[in-house]
Amino acid sequence: MKCIKCDADNKLKDRKANRGKCKNCRHEFAFDPKVMPGVDFTDKFFEQTIHNLSVNNSLFFTPGQFYFFFNQRRNAKKPNPLKVAGGCVLAAALALNVVLYVATGFSFVWFIPLLLVAALALALLVSPGLRRRLSGVKPQELGATQKEVEGWFDRWRKVNGDVAKLLRPPVQKEKTKNEAVQINPELRNYSFDRAVICDHAEIAQCLIANNFHFEYNCAVLSIDGYPHEIFEAVMEMLRRNQNLSVYALHDASIRGVELTHTLSTNVQWFAGTFAKIYDLGLLPRQLFNRSVFIENTPQSAQTGTRNVPAHVAATLQPEEVRWLESGNFVVLESFSTQMLMRSVAQGIAKSRDPNAGDALVPVTTDGGRDGGVFIYAWDSFG
Questions:
Q1: d(Cα 288, Cα 281) in Å, to the nearest integer?
Q2: What's the CA gap between 278 and 343, in Å, rounded?
Q3: 284 with 252: CB under 8 angstroms?
Q4: What digits encode the pLDDT tens for the residues 96-153?
Q5: Alpha helices, H only, 258-336
Q6: How does pLDDT run across 159-218, given as a tens digit for each residue?
Q7: Structural domains in the chain, sorted by start
Q8: DSSP string, 176-216
Q9: CB-neighbour burial class of residue 208 (10 A; exposed 0-12, middle 13-18, buried 19+)
């Protein structure tokens, strides 16, 4: 294994002789797959996972995002059966080609069809897309539990120090007038033209920490009132704007797909306003042909036994309703910060593009001549 500090290669005997430290710089190894039960990765792998998720330490991420991203990279290390089969077929076809080529006196009778077989095997080796089409789109597997990943992260920080871009869980608390930030009266006359509303405080926190609200000049809030100190003041500003566009961002779950209905019918949100609401997702149909982390727990299966509310089911495809009522769900935190920011940015751009065409699908048109909320959705995410 290579040391992450000095890049020196340490064999097992070196690590044992130095009590788990680098023979060159004496830096401690956080992980050793040769001696730690359940560990099949190295310090280099763990470090690269952090670098990839944070895009070389430029983006903040949540503990939940790391959990899914770690499992995703760990899954990628596993050998693909079709790729292994392709390698075996390629080797066998090439060997048989040589034998027949010599045995038939350099005849091409057998050479050409076997060469085609070899070409297919080579395609399996080098083309992830071909392997995916042949094997079908399969869900990602959560090989490590959240408790295991948290324990490994604690071990990493103990050896290597805090990770600068890891966000702490947002503080959940009730909003009170005493805690509200007093905003300059002149600023209250200003209003954002856009607002992103998330169904989890963690997602709102992640977007805000990465300055998405500054870059796209939009408010970012969560359905449970994050960030609490400025929530009421921002909502007051938003409701005054008759040209407001609202972008809903939520899990693909029964609770998640209800978000747009809540935003459009609840007077504490945008009921009775002129807001246009865009459902960015996650919607089940956006995930049917993607390899994602589909979860289904006893608790969610029990929740799924109750039907999707009729007013929500009317906005979904029958296949989506069946998928949700089976207890399936996909959480937003299973996507990286980079992916989430790109998806929201694309959604905002599409909503402002008059040539978006079929990308923009009307879900409901509750508004009329005198105004009201309009809701739209997309069939893709990112």
A1: 13
A2: 13
A3: yes
A4: 565 555 666 555 444 655 555 556 555 555 565 554 555 556 888 899 999 999 999 9
A5: 259-265, 298-304, 310-313, 318-325
A6: 999 999 999 998 765 544 455 555 555 555 567 889 999 999 999 999 999 999 988 889
A7: 31-168 (no CATH), 185-377 (3.40.1360.10)
A8: -TTTS----HHHHT---SEEEEESSHHHHHHHHHTTHHHHT
A9: buried
Instruction: With beta carbons less than 8 A apart as the criterion, state whether 124 and 130 touch.
Output: yes
Q: CA–CA separation, 356 vs 320, rounded Å?
A: 24
Distance CA 31, CA 28 (A): 9
First to last CA, the chain: 37
DSSP one-letter code for 247: E
Q: Residue 199, class by beta-carbon neighbours within 10 Å (0-12 exposed, 13-18 middle, 19+ buried)?
A: buried
* pLDDT tens-digit map of 29-49: 999 999 999 999 999 999 999
The token pair at 250 is: 């939520």
| Contacting residues for 87 by C-beta, under 8 A, at least 6 apart | 121, 125
pTM: 0.79
Contact 241, 226 (CB under 8 A): no
**Which amino acid makes up residue 166?**
L
Give the whole-angstrom CA distance, residue 274 versus residue 261.
15
Per DSSP, what are the bridge partners of residue 196? 220, 247
Residue 294 and residue 286: Cα distance in Å, rounded? 13
- Judge contact between 381 and 281, C-beta under 8 A: yes
- Please give the residue that has the higher pLDDT: either 188 or 311: 311
